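HUMAN: Please help interpret these tokens:
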Amino acid sequence: MPHSNNTSTSFFLTGLPGLEAVYIWLSIPLCAMYVASLAGNSLILWVVRSEPSLHQPMYYFLSMLAVTDLGLSTSTLPSMLTIYMLGLREVDVNLCLAQLFFIHTFSIMESSVLLTMAFDRFVAISSPLRYGTILTNSRIASLGLAIMVRSVSLHIPAPIMLRKLPYCQNRLLSHSYCLHPDVMKLACTDTHINSAYGLFVVLSTLGLDSVLIVLSYGLILQTVLSIASKTERLKALNTCVSHICAVLLFYTPMIGLSMIHRFGRRVSPCVRVSLSYLHFLTPPVLNPVVYTIKTKQIRQRMARVFWSGRAGIRDMLGH
């Protein structure tokens, strides 16, 4: 099969199939989601930094989650907006490989942060008196550094390996952004090594993290059930609700997408693309909302900012 020269290769991204006539209208909610993600996660970071009562391990981990959500939104949405707003689908191979590196890196970072947050909830519920001594600032910083090193180092080989492959004349990707399996399918050579490496990364990160999160909640549930007071049991479980929502927002679309790729060969491309959007776009938008609704301190801080802002505007108008 003929293939193109790597030095001049470019790929073509895909929007929602069959809806080309309304792409410009679809760009409106996508743009709103991008703005909401940037504003929501930036606000979470500002609130945690400016409110002394939030300088606790749980909120430091929430800040890490906000940073990864900002990275994930910035890695995916701009290329989608160029498709839906400008109709530009062609992307240079180097830009494509850089995008897939950042998308997969931030995805693994998000999974890792969710795992550390599960550990945080386990420590808070099982050893509340030792919570501050176990999760010190230095240990939290070390966990953050380990998450970053793990995510970056595991994905550095992927774009390098893909860059060395020859690609076929058909360079149409099946998503609105570059993903490792998607780019790999366009190669005109044996990709077993790339495929095996990709599977290893997925199993050793997303697969392992999800299992450890489930185990953590098994231990949390065991600890909660040993509490004599029903009120205290409900109070302990209530501290986990936000994290459980974040886990479900991240893993549910991913599991559905994996099942469709493996078993749903007759499923329309539109469904696959939509599930992919849910997996990458929903957590950055909804995580700040979930944590704002469920966290009293964040809610109160935002309310104070809002009311002080309104008071300032009234004073300006009064003068």
